[in-house]
Design brief:
Mean pLDDT: 85
Number of strands: 6
Distance between the termini: 93 Å
Structural class: alpha+beta
Shape: elongated
Number of helices: 14
Order of helices and strands: HEEEHEHEHHHHEHHHHHHH
Largest sheet: 6 strands, antiparallel
Helix content: 40-55%
Length: 330
């Protein structure tokens, strides 16, 4: 098959395809939810064809799930023209390569062990792309400043249909995502009861990500959005309880403050923040938060009274210690 025909096959302008090694069988079905495994090499269009990234050097092939908002969607188009085992060289103009530096940064950070493998979540927010003046890699900063056409050499290894593999939460449809939330929530609660706070936090966070992925498609502050927001906040507060047990008090203060800023009536957030303030000796802030809890829910009187008794006792002990310390100094 000639290059020209292959170019047409892609049905997209600004792409030229050259088959370097023919594949076998028919072109696989690239349906939404299919998992595609492939090797890639990205090169500049200079005389040396300078290599920017190469998955074979890293040693792990790339995996993407079709229809999952993978930010370099041109790769889906390119792969969909290939047979299993095929190696092809694709020239793509700048209309297709503009976001490559961002995707490359994420892939490099995973390869270096700096980011967890759930990086596709981070690349979902295109707003982030303008937040970084530098991507932390000179060659990528260069490409970001001045986008260039690129060569992608792809080798298609495997295509698995949705029924053939166990999909992770980010590869689910919105309906499936919302169904999995209570399951993850329940697993988190169980781990919390077992004292496995780190693992519980992980489950709660997975559930939050599922909710946030669906929530981005709703209109802010309208009923469906608010319902999802409420679910996410409940899970965030569960995370805060885990963090409190793990003695990450400042993180608790940060998360609860985020919720309070958006939802000033969130009683549980004030309560957890008050407890965290207490642990880091912020007496005035703790008292303020506990008093807000009582304003919002007088039924919390007993619990608050207990916390304040502990706070009073601690402050008394601290003052006593301070007095001893100063006494020794003079």
């Amino acid at each position: 098959m000639s290059d020209i025909q292959d170019t047409l096959l892609l049905g997209s302008e600004g792409i030229k395809k050259t088959i370097l090694h023919g594949g076998t069988g028919d072109i696989p079905k690239f349906i939404t939810g299919a998992k595609v495994t492939f090797h890639f090499r990205t090169q500049l269009c200079d005389d040396e064809r300078t290599v920017i990234d190469d998955s074979k050097v890293v040693g792990t092939p790339m995996e993407i799930v079709i229809g999952n908002m993978f930010k370099l969607d041109i790769w889906e188009t390119l792969l969909a023209s290939m047979r299993i085992g095929e190696v092809a060289d694709f020239w793509c103009d700048i209309s297709h390569t503009g976001v490559y530096p961002l995707v490359s940064k994420s892939m490099r950070r995973i390869a270096e062990g700096k980011d967890p493998v759930d990086w596709h979540i981070h690349t979902c927010g295109m707003a982030n792309m303008f937040a970084y003046h530098s991507l932390g890699y000179d060659d990528l900063d260069e490409l970001m400043k001045e986008p260039k056409p690129l060569y992608f050499v792809l080798e298609l290894l495997m295509v698995q249909q949705p029924s053939e593999y166990n999909r992770e939460s980010w590869a689910l449809s919105d309906e499936e995502r919302l169904k999995i939330v209570p399951v993850l929530h329940g697993q988190g609660n169980k781990l919390y009861k077992q004292g496995r706070y780190q693992d519980a936090t992980q489950k709660y966070k997975e559930a939050i990500i599922c909710i946030k992925n669906v929530q981005t498609k709703e209109k802010s502050w309208e009923v469906p959005w608010l319902k999802l927001e409420k679910m996410a906040n409940t899970l965030t507060l569960n995370c805060c309880q885990c963090l409190h047990r793990m003695e990450e008090y400042y993180e608790v203060i940060e998360h609860t403050s985020d919720i309070i800023n958006q939802h000033p009536g969130a009683m549980k957030a004030f309560y957890l923040r008050g407890k965290a303030h207490m642990e880091v000796w912020n007496e005035a802030e703790a008292r303020q938060d506990f008093s807000r809890v009582l304003d919002l829910d007088p039924g919390m009187k007993k619990a608050v009274k207990k916390e304040l008794a502990v706070l009073n006792m601690r402050m008394e002990e601290k003052n006593q210690e301070d007095r001893e310390t100063y006494k020794g100094m003079f």
